[in-house]
Specification:
The chain is α+β, with helices and mostly antiparallel strands and about 525 residues long. It has four domains: about 80 residues, GIY-YIG endonuclease; about 150 residues, no CATH class; about 110 residues, Ribonuclease H-like superfamily/Ribonuclease H (Nucleotidyltransferase, domain 5, 2-Layer Sandwich); about 160 residues, UvrC, RNAse H endonuclease domain (Nucleotidyltransferase, domain 5, 2-Layer Sandwich). The chain is built from 16 helices and 19 strands. Strands 12, 13, 14, 15, 16, 17, 18 and 19 form an eight-stranded mixed sheet that branches. The chain has a five-stranded mixed sheet with strand order 9-8-7-10-11, with helices on both faces. β4 and β5 form a beta hairpin. α8 runs antiparallel to α9. The chain is globular, with a radius of gyration of 27 Å.
């Protein structure tokens, strides 16, 4: 039953809206200059298929007001990272960035902050970031600790350790003066982690203190400050080097096909294309090129020039936000001629190739070899991980466009099978997976892959049949990489050099790795 929009009062202020399902789970987060106008538009009849699916799942809508559209943009991005709603754009490259945490202890430490799958930070304390993987703030975490005399010991010792004698820590474990100074060091570190301007202010403050100490003939104090400035200068130099080594230009092209978008980018270093990525997202609600760019640059280094095939909505707002975050003026441009336009044309040519062929050439090979009705853009692969009679789990990897979609991975505790019966376990997890997708009215895969032989394939097919599903399903046997298909006695042998086989192997290996890791976690918890 469609949600009755007339039953709620919608403000006309700027802000964000959080759409929830029957379980109270947030399924979509959007922003608007006028919340009432935007939210009501979802319930018009002329919506695309994907937006209709979103509306069918809405059971409640929550609002958070902001002072202006800029604040709504920032809040929306942060809330998407926190809640990871399934209808929003979410870039699947969290390995590219990290966060730093100042722990909540009497004498805090500086640590790399870890996150759970639902976006929550582990450990207590104040978190800073995100920092890109190449960021000197991460790579020189040791320099930061030394610069601000932050301890590294997990448990505070009774006597000073080697770090004190090396000059990297003042020894709050033993000395009262160090204990009194420690909170000042932590406060200064927090200022530096907040951004570039705070670093400059802190550096100037230290220089003034050094000259003042020298005037008062407090030469030991002046020397300590000088050493801190040298370390801080080294950190800033590395930050400058990092920017020089990266390009000040990045190129994006976008192509629309039916209800989805394909974005491809080129990163230029010294005028040469050195890296490229492809991204896919559904055109649901406010999902747009503008939202994509903001999400992308929340986890990547911002260049001076962002060259695009078409101008995003909110161009001026994006330029303002990126300029504020980076500390220099950022421009978003559509090149009209010359080499820059040639690069954009090349990206669009690649996108047209993706659309015409359906993505990875290996996927087209799979369609032809397995006689599938469509190109298998979405592949789900299943495996059972056994360790004795008491420890057995199921795992599933999900590939979209021939590459891992890690947020779509799933793990299963075996509930109905005892002993070591792989066939029954495969049957259980297949039935659970696709019964749930049918209940949620979620998108089904184009191809199901089972790690195993004919027996595992038969067990999976029985479960699919019991659910009334006729999804393409195969199994991949490890020994000779034989591919079994239903109703065929003999397996298919795909040549090892074929990219189609490599996609299947990658999916199988990812599923196995994910399952083994989950099994190991369960066994460790059991032992504890």
């Amino acid at each position: 039953m469609t949600f009755d929009i007339s039953k709620i009062i919608i403000p006309t202020d700027p802000g964000i809206y959080l759409m929830k399902d029957l379980d109270g789970t947030i399924i979509y987060i959007g922003k608007a200059k006028n919340l009432k106008n935007r939210v009501r538009s979802y319930f018009n009849k002329n919506q695309n298929y994907k937006t209709q699916k979103l509306v069918e799942n809405i059971s409640d809508i929550e609002f958070v007001l902001t002072d202006n559209e800029s604040e709504a943009f920032l809040l929306e991005s942060n809330m998407i990272k926190k809640h990871r709603p399934r209808f929003n754009i979410e870039l699947k490259d969290q390995q590219r960035y990290t966060y730093l945490r100042i722990s909540d202890e009497k004498y805090p430490r500086l640590l790399v902050s870890r996150r759970t799958r639902d976006g929550k930070f582990l450990g207590k304390g104040k978190t800073f970031g995100p920092f890109t993987q190449g960021s000197s703030k991460l790579l020189t975490i040791g320099t930061l600790r030394k610069t601000f005399q932050i301890r590294i010991c997990k448990t505070l010792p009774k006597k000073v350790c080697l770090e004190y004698h090396l000059g990297n820590c003042e020894g709050p474990c033993e000395f009262k003066d160090a204990q009194e100074q420690y909170s000042k060091h932590v406060a200064a570190l927090k200022d530096v982690l907040k951004g570039k301007n705070q670093t400059k202010i802190f550096t100037k403050k230290l220089e003034d203190e050094m000259y003042q100490a020298a005037k008062l003939q407090q030469f030991e104090r002046a020397k300590d400050i000088r050493d801190t400035l040298v370390r801080l200068g080294s950190l800033q130099t590395k930050q400058k080097m990092e920017y020089v080594e990266n390009s000040d230009e990045e190129y994006f092209g976008i192509g629309i096909q039916e209800h989805s978008a394909t974005v491809m980018n080129f990163r230029m270093i010294n005028g040469v294309i050195r890296d490229s990525d492809k991204f896919f997202f559904d055109l649901v609600g406010d999902n747009s090129f503008s939202n994509f760019l903001y999400q992308y640059y929340s986890t990547h280094k911002i260049p001076k020039f962002i060259l695009v095939s078409q101008l995003p909505e909110n161009k001026k707002l994006l330029e303002s936000l990126f300029s504020e975050q980076s500390g220099f003026t950022v421009q978003i441009l559509v090149p009209g001629k010359g080499k820059k336009k040639d690069i954009i044309d090349l990206i669009l040519k690649n996108i047209r190739l993706i659309h015409s062929k359906g993505g990875d050439p290996g996927l087209i090979e799979l369609r032809d070899i397995l006689h599938l009705p469509v190109i298998p853009n979405i592949i789900e692969c299943f495996d059972i991980s056994n360790h004795g009679d008491d420890f057995a789990v199921g795992s599933m990897s999900r590939f979209v466009g021939g590459i891992p979609n890690k947020s779509g991975y799933r793990k299963f505790k075996i509930k109905t099978v005892s002993g070591r019966d792989d066939f029954a376990m495969i049957s259980e997890i297949i039935k659970r997976r696709y019964y749930r997708l049918l209940e949620e009215n979620s998108e089904l895969p184009d191809l199901i892959v089972i790690d195993g032989g004919k027996g595992q394939l038969s067990a999976a097919m029985k479960s699919l049949t019991s659910l009334g599903l006729k999804l393409p399903c195969i199994s991949l046997a490890k020994e000779n990489e034989e591919v079994y298909v239903p109703k065929n006695k003999n397996p298919i042998l795909i040549p090892k050099y074929k990219s189609s086989l490599k996609i299947l192997q990658h999916a199988r290996d990812e599923t196995h790795r994910f399952g083994v890791a989950y099994n190991r976690t369960i066994r460790k918890n059991q032992i504890k």
